[in-house]
Every structure is written in C-alpha cells, then in structure tokens.
Amino acid sequence: MVQYSQASFDASFAALSDATRRGVLEQLGRADASITDLAVKFRMSLTGMKKHVVVLEQAGLVTTKKVGRVRSCKLGLRRLEEEAAWIERYRQLWEARFDELDKVVEELKRREVDGRKKRE
Amino acid sequence: MDARRGSEAAPTKNRVTVERKSERELVVTRTFNGPARLVFEAWTKAELFRQWWVPKSIGMSLLSCEMDVRVGGRYRLEFAHGDSQAAFFGTYKEVTPHSRLVWTNEESDQGQVTTVTFAEKDGKTLLVMHELYPSKEALDAAGTGAADAMGETFEQLDELLITLGASVGRS
Question: What CATH number has the domain bearing residue A87?
C-alpha cells in the first residue's frame, strides 16, 4: 500500500525530481550499497553522489550508516509503510495548519478587545 | 510519536489527535483557545482561511481561495507546488453558524465528505473534523485530499514507491 502525506511533500518532491536520485532508490531497492559503489554505478564523483544521498536521506527515503571508512546506504522506506507513520505525518500536517489557525484566532480575539476599548 | 517530537512541543500547546475511526473514516481533533464564533469565522471567511490552511512547512502556496459559505454554495482552492498546480473544490452541504460545517470534496469521484464541528466550553473550542471516504481504498490512497489532486507527479511517486515497497518487502 502506498501512503504519504502533505507534510513530507517538499522533501519528497525535491528528492524525486532528479533522475539520478530515482535511479539510486531503484538501485538500493535491489541491494544496499556504499556511496562509492553508487558513484561508480552512476559515473559521478564521490562528492556529487554524497550530495544526492544527503537529499534522499533528508526526505527519509534513504538511511546511511558509516562502517569503518565506508558509508553504506539502504532504503528508509519501511516506516513509510506503517500506518502509524502515515497517521503521524497526517497529524503533523494538521498540527502545522492548526498552529497557524491559533494565530488567526488570537488576532481575532485581539481585534474584539480593541473594538470594545474603542467603544468604551 | 517519538521522543524527539514530544520534547519539541510547548507544554501549553493544544494537541492534535488523528484517529482512523473505521476503514473509511478519519477524525482529527484539536482545542483552540478562543470562542467558537471566532474559530468558525476563521474557517468560513476566505481572507482568514487562507492565512492558515497552507502552512509554509507543507511546501505549497495558495494561489486563490474562493468560499461561498452557505448551503449549496461552493468553494475552490488553487495551489501551486513547484511547477505543478492543483485545485480543490466542492459544495457546502450544511452551514450552522459557530457549530457545524459539512462540505464535499469533488476534485475526484473518490472525494471525502468533511464535517467540522465546533463545541465551545469555558471560552475554548473543541474542534472535531470528520472525513468520510467512499471506500477504504480512497482513504488509503488519498492520505490527504491534496495527494489525490497532485496528479501526474503523484502517480510517478506512486509507481516509484510501489517498486521500492516491493523491493523492501523482498529484502
């Protein structure tokens, strides 16, 4: 089942907007790999590949772990498949909205108080 | 959910809860520190609604927001996310000032019916938002109404996640 939320739009869209990064995800779907492996596979510099992996990591699509001098990458999707995680991200969206709504309500309250003061 | 998020929240902050009540229903609740008439106003006046519906953190911007809040009246929200645009629209089915709003989401035939109730107590308002989807699949797939309307971009994401999900399952 595919589940996602608005809260992670930004990072996921940015991460998936690039053909290399989509390729990296497909590659990691087949097997875990080090950044060096990936750089060789996609014919790019180690630095270039590191940047891609950081973007994927920030989007929660990949996790990395340093073992000795090698940074190994794997898919970070497992939690995306959990309903609890889906609900949590949905909750985060509403939390973000409602935090803004708090500000609107506070502003309306202030206006009412000001209105009352003016009439007094 | 995890410890890190818990420690970020201010102690006095009102907590949002989200619960999947059934295969087709999702319920979101939150208390607001203000009377129902003001919270209701923020949901029914476009110039106020647009100040909070699209928080920056979701990475979208609201291009336009039209709301004709009366029974049979329509609303339309237009969003941009990067190069893609999406519109959300529907009809208000019930409008009971300061206590209840019901509207449809008509951007797809799998759209949900949203009911929002506002219950005031001691100057605070308990808000309950209930979404009823036509099927379990619609709720699973939509995640949010927004996801549905993002069109091609999401279909691409779908395909990729399905591929990846299958891979993870095998490992």
Answer: 1.10.10.10
